[in-house]
Specification:
Blueprint: H1 3-21, H2 37-51, H3 64-81, H4 89-104, H5 112-119, H6 127-144
Helix pairs in contact: 1-4, 1-5, 1-6, 2-3, 3-4, 4-6
């Protein structure tokens, strides 16, 4: 899988599908509720920035272990920063599910089968979990825009 595709799929799956497939509760519940929108948005998009190769002309794909560590670290940052005031209860619960899922991820979660399962939006998730995931996705997009819009993802050699 190309770096660009792998990073985009992984991040999209985690930001959208993870919240829907998680049960909610647990981690993230103690995260602050007074983050600035700037800090919140910067932290949300930091996963993609952290995983981008330093030199896209000779990209080195992160290993599954490196990706899992990056996601765990990102989840810890999310929990540390928290959410801005005024986030709806459902969107906050979706955020908490993402933080929980990020904390539980491991290298095996980056198999193509698991990513496709996450990308499907947690088809076995409860209606409540899906509602919370949708609320968080909507809040995130309205507050921060599309996370891929802020990342300069140049074409890789041989991909154009």
């Amino acid at each position: 899988m190309a770096t660009r595709t792998r990073l985009a799929v992984s991040t999209a799956a985690l930001l959208v599908g993870a919240a829907a497939s998680a049960c909610g509760g647990g981690a993230g519940g103690g995260a602050p509720t007074d983050a600035s929108e700037k800090d919140f948005c910067r932290t949300q998009s930091s996963l993609l920035e952290d995983l981008m190769p330093d030199d896209v002309s000779e990209p080195v794909l992160p290993s599954d272990e490196q990706m899992a560590k990056a996601v765990k670290d990102w989840g810890a940052k999310l929990e540390e920063v928290g959410t801005p005031e005024g986030i709806s209860d459902d969107a906050r619960k979706g955020f908490e599910a993402v933080v929980e899922q990020a904390g539980e991820i491991d290298a095996s979660d980056f198999s193509i089968e698991k990513l496709e399962e996450l990308e499907a939006g947690g088809k076995d998730a409860s209606a409540e979990a899906k509602k919370q995931a949708d609320a968080f996705e909507k809040y995130l997009t309205e507050t921060c825009g599309n996370p891929l819009d802020d990342i300069d993802m140049p074409e890789l050699p041989g991909s154009g």
